[in-house]
Amino acid sequence: MCGFVGLIAPDTVAPSLVMGLQSIQHRGQDAAGAATFDGQRWHLTKDLGMVSSVLSADRIQGMTGNVGIAHVRYPTAGTTSTQQDAQPFQTRHPGILLAHNGNLTNIPELTAQLNEQGCHVLSGCDAEPLLLVLAQELQAIRPANHTADDVATAVAAVYRRVRGAYSVVAVLAVDGVPTLVAFRDPHGIRPGCYGKRADGAWMVASESVALDVLDFEKRGDLPAGEVLFFRAGAEPEQRCVAPDTPRPCVFERIYFARPDSRMEEGRVNRSRWRMGRTLAREWAAKGAEADVVVAVPDTSRPAAMAMAEELGVPHREGFIKNRYSGRTFIMPDAASRKAALRLKLNPIREMFEGKRVLLVDDSIVRGTTMGRIVEMLRGLNPAALHVAIFSPPVRNPCFYGIDMPSPSELVATRYAPKEVETALADRIGADSLTFLSIDGLKSVMGDNVCAACFDGNYTVPISDDEKSFIMGERR
């Protein structure tokens, strides 16, 4: 999972790009980068590390230009990253800056095609082959002076050649004018939105919180299968290239996005609240009782508060969270995740001791984190410890931009669907475990979502060879 921002404004954009990027730092802590274009020169800086260290004031002070893009990276392939893997990427023929969020599923095929035509991929990041395909298609139309029609035609070719999930932001000269260009794959799996500021500036971003921090009014989500052209002081130009049924990623709503972000169906907070209400009804149907509802911070708070309200049980803060620790789900190995958890959460004893506790979390992937949380809480002598998860069991890897482990590492795959709650409760040491059902999830989110990690219905077809390649890269 990654995050991007793009900005075109009446004046220099570099400082605002950095500020917008900091608001979506949660989408990636591996690397950061920014690039601007002043009409003559391209300015690019990127490196491993957090936004505050990579894009410090002294590194961006020379980055002139009223249009630019920035990116935070969380790698979904490989065990190590280099500066070369950081985004944005740039090509000189023609001049394009590009960043994306997502995952391409047919990288070997694309790489072979590019190599045959003398174009070599140098990094381990799939944004680079995507950029090279776009550049190649533009060059096939004409070498320079590209028009909006040219870009729309080239993006149509990208849609035909590039499979997977991707939201893209780019900077290039279009119709002789520096332009911010954004497009999203035909299924709109990965998120993207855009907005306008009072001074005529336009911004695109992975999440609307980046718009909020810079006083942009959200105008819409990037349409699936369409290309948008942004210029300061003018309304965006929109081209429909490959219309299809949007199927946005449901795991974004459950885990990755900030609760104050607004996506197609509204505020993420509201979606999590509705999932919590639905889960509360499914949990209550089992006949269990609780004295207190406690969220595993931070993602689970809206669902936990909704469950407490629906059940008529007090909701209490049960953990103090270390704000300087990372998200354990995206740590690269088990040892890192274990150490991170010890740093991350410290329980408040009186919220658990002698009480029947309903502990709410967003998901169980490997099961190790929740097992360690339950083990830690057992030392506080609760009367009972029930776990409720406001998503279904994760049974399938994601190939569209979320680094789900291999099937053998997904703990839910070890048990039959009817046995998974009882077996996993025993495994993690809880008195009971309740997942939100698939039907319950879709009663909130609808049927037109990508929920492949739960139901195995992959939105973009992926071959066994492509699956093997992606899982091999992750190892």
Outline:
The protein is of the alpha+beta class. It is built from 16 helices and 22 strands.
At the fold tier of CATH, the topology name of the largest domain is Glutamine Phosphoribosylpyrophosphate, subunit 1, domain 1
Number of domains: 2
> At the fourth CATH level, what is the homologous superfamily of the largest domain?
Aminohydrolase, N-terminal nucleophile (Ntn) domain
The radius of gyration over CA amounts to 23 Å
For the termini, the CA-CA separation is 17 Å
Strand count: 22
Mean pLDDT: 93
Helical percent range?
25-40%
Helix count equals: 16
Low-confidence stretches: none
- The CATH class of the largest domain is identified as Alpha Beta
At CATH level 2, the architecture of the largest domain is 4-Layer Sandwich
Strands of the largest sheet, in order across it?
Answer: 3-2-4-1-10-9-11
Structural class: alpha+beta
Which geometry do the CA atoms define?
globular
Attribute tags:
single chain; 475 residues; alpha+beta; Glutamine Phosphoribosylpyrophosphate, subunit 1, domain 1; Rossmann fold; 7-stranded antiparallel beta sheet; 6-stranded antiparallel beta sheet; 22 strands; 32% helix; globular
Could you please describe the fold and organization of this structure?
It is a single chain. The protein is α+β, with helices and mostly antiparallel strands and 475 residues long. It folds into two domains: 3-247, Glutamine Phosphoribosylpyrophosphate, subunit 1, domain 1 (4-Layer Sandwich); 256-458, Rossmann fold, CATH 3.40.50. 32% of the residues lie in helices and 24% in strands. It has 16 helices and 22 strands. It has helices at residues 14-22, 51-54, 57-60, 107-116, 127-141, 148-161, 209-213, 250-256, 268-284, 301-311, 334-344, 368-378, 420-428, 438-445, 452-455, 464-474, and strands spanning 3-8, 31-37, 42-48, 67-73, 89-92, 95-104, 164-174, 177-184, 193-196, 202-205, 217-221, 226-230, 237-240, 262-263, 266-267, 292-295, 315-316, 319-321, 345-347, 356-361, 384-389, 432-435. The strands form five sheets. Strands 3-2-4-1-10-9-11 form a seven-stranded antiparallel beta sheet. Helix 5 crosses helix 6 (148-161). The chain is globular. The relative contact order is 0.11.
